Automatic annotation (TrEMBL), chain A:
Domain Response regulatory: 9-124
Keyword Phosphoprotein: yes
Protein name: Two-component response regulator 24-like
Source species, domain of life: Eukaryota
Record PANTHER family: TWO-COMPONENT RESPONSE REGULATOR, TWO-COMPONENT RESPONSE REGULATOR ARR22
InterPro entries in UniProt: CheY-like_superfamily, Sig_transdc_resp-reg_receiver, ST_Response_Regulator
Keywords: Phosphoprotein
One Pfam family here: Response_reg
Annotated positions of the 4-aspartylphosphate modification: 59
SMART domains: REC (SM00448)
UniProtKB/TrEMBL annotation, chain B:
Localization, UniProt: Cytoplasm, Cytosol; Nucleus
Record-given protein name: Histidine-containing phosphotransfer protein
Job description of the protein: Functions as a two-component phosphorelay mediators between cytokinin sensor histidine kinases and response regulators (B-type ARRs). Plays an important role in propagating cytokinin signal transduction.
Domain notes for this protein: Histidine-containing phosphotransfer domain (HPt) contains an active histidine that mediates the phosphotransfer.
Organism annotation: Salvia divinorum
PANTHER family: HISTIDINE-CONTAINING PHOSPHOTRANSFER PROTEIN 1, PHOSPHORELAY INTERMEDIATE PROTEIN YPD1
Keyword entries, A-Z: Cytokinin signaling pathway, Cytoplasm, Nucleus, Phosphoprotein, Two-component regulatory system
Length: 128, 154
């Protein structure tokens, strides 16, 4: 998938390395340029250092800086890319708080090819 | 053994693991992500899962052995275990983690200890089975065959 001649870029943010490896591979398989971060702080630092991404896959519960806090911080910096939350918490106040932090959408873990396909459709609409 | 026979055993063994609920569709996702550019992908991910799980189970045993059990810490470990087991499709481990978390919420030490045994048992079972599956995979490759695709089981 490309945008104006370059690859679509994505950032995977999760504290679990098994999940990072699986999600990264999944996105690479869809032809995306993919980077990973171990927590919200690392993700934020990447943006502060000048990196940009077309979308971010953000875990909810992480040490150092969690998903809701990182999402709020990114939005406060004016980051307007698509941020997709992933959580295993199901529907509840925590998920609602996460969404309210500035997510474009939120999915239940684990991420799979079908979910990535849906995300990319949404992204294509947003970019067109 | 002939390649076809190995491939048949592989399909039978894998479908058994799905049928008995050891693995779910997420494991098929991993298999679909394995390609020529990354022929050892499943092996690599599963190996990382084993390493992290061994460490998590060790940390959980220690945390539950304390005079004053820190349930928040235990819940965080179990949450992580649930996330990694579900991302490789180790369904029965994931289910055992869900029960574990409810005892954490109740701050029930006895319940947590029972769940730790349950989670350990399910983990060791799926580990043994995945190791056998990966050995079969290696035998097929060594014999010059291709790993059968598993899409029909997802």
């Amino acid at each position: 998938m490309k945008k104006g001649g370059r690859k679509i870029s994505a950032l995977v943010v999760d504290d679990d390395r098994v999940i990072r490896v699986v999600e990264e591979k999944l996105l690479v398989r869809f032809g995306l340029e993919t980077k990973v971060a171990k927590n919200g702080k690392e993700a934020l630092d990447l943006f502060v250092a000048g990196n940009t991404f077309d979308f971010v896959v953000m875990d909810m519960e992480m040490p150092v800086m969690d998903g809701p806090e990182a999402t709020r911080a990114l939005r406060a910096r004016g980051v307007d890319c698509m941020i997709v939350g992933v959580t295993s918490r199901g529907d509840g106040p925590e998920k609602a708080e996460f969404e309210a932090a500035g997510l474009n959408c939120c999915w239940e873990k684990p991420l799979n090819a079908q979910i990535v396909g849906t995300i990319l459709d949404k992204l294509a609409k947003k970019l067109s | 053994m002939e390649v076809e026979q190995l491939q048949r055993s592989f399909i039978e063994y894998t479908s058994g693991l799905f049928r008995e609920g050891f693995l779910d569709g997420q494991f098929s996702q991993l298999q679909m992500l394995q390609d020529e550019t990354n022929p050892d992908f499943v092996f690599e991910v599963v190996s990382l899962f084993f390493e992290d799980s061994d460490r998590l189970l060790h940390d959980l045993s220690l945390a539950l052995d304390q005079q004053n059990v820190d349930f928040k810490k235990i819940d965080a470990h179990v949450h992580q275990f649930k996330g990694s087991s579900s991302s490789i499709g180790a369904q029965r481990v994931k289910t055992a983690c869900i029960a574990f978390r409810s005892f954490c919420e109740e701050q029930n030490v006895e319940g947590c200890l029972g769940c730790l045994q349950q989670v350990k048992q399910e983990y060791l079972l799926v580990k043994t089975k995945l190791e056998a599956l990966l050995r079969l995979e290696q035998q097929i490759v060594a014999a010059g065959g291709a790993i059968p695709t598993l899409n029909e089981f997802s």
